[in-house]
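thought: user wants a sequence for this fold. calling inverse folding tool.
action: design(structure=
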């Protein structure tokens, strides 16, 4: 084995160990490269908060990862049946809250995730009803601010898997800041 191959192997292991960061950053870059408008950024934020709520309501951290795909499907299905995407996500959120309450989910976790969904998600949806540039800036700020919520969960290693919280941090910060920049220069 050559010296450079021995040096490169630990680097690749480090990258593989940080796969959530790589995937989150790649998703943010892809979103920015293909057009990060206020609705797209609001969807990212609302799906993220729904993932956390789902994990808390069902008491299963892995559900947060499944929630990424499920939330995206709810957005598409809502639009296909003529319902605005945020109403579809809202219906699912109410069902998760009810299921969590009836199923004996941790009340503190369920309450915290419900409050986060209402706060972050509510402001993201509000951003859709104001001037486009101001709305894009608002949803961008809220998405970047959601990274603090991700960091809390990453450090505590509760509610969602650390890998999901790490992924979200690397998605939320660059995409949120990028959205704000686009709102200012556009």
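)
observation: tool returned 186 residues.
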């Amino acid at each position: 084995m050559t010296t450079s191959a021995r040096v490169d192997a630990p680097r690749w292991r480090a990258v593989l160990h940080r796969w959530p960061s790589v995937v989150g950053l790649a998703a943010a870059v892809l979103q920015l490269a293909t057009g990060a408008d206020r609705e797209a950024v609001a969807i990212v934020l609302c799906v993220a908060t729904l993932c956390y709520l789902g994990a808390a309501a069902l008491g299963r951290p892995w559900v947060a990862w499944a929630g990424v795909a499920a939330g995206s499907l709810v957005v598409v299905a809502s639009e296909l049946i003529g319902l605005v995407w945020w109403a579809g996500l809202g219906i699912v959120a109410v069902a998760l809250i009810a299921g969590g309450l009836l199923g004996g989910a941790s009340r503190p976790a369920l309450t915290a995730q419900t409050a986060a969904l209402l706060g972050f998600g509510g402001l993201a949806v509000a951003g859709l009803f104001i001037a486009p540039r101001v709305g894009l800036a608002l949803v961008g700020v809220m998405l970047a601010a959601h990274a603090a919520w991700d960091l809390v969960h990453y450090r505590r290693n509760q509610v969602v898997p650390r890998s999901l919280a790490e992924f979200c941090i690397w998605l939320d910060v660059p995409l949120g800041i990028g959205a704000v920049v686009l709102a200012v220069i556009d």
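thought: summarizing for user.
answer: Here is the designed sequence. Helices lie at 3-17, 19-33, 38-58, 63-80, 85-103, 107-126, 132-156, 162-185.
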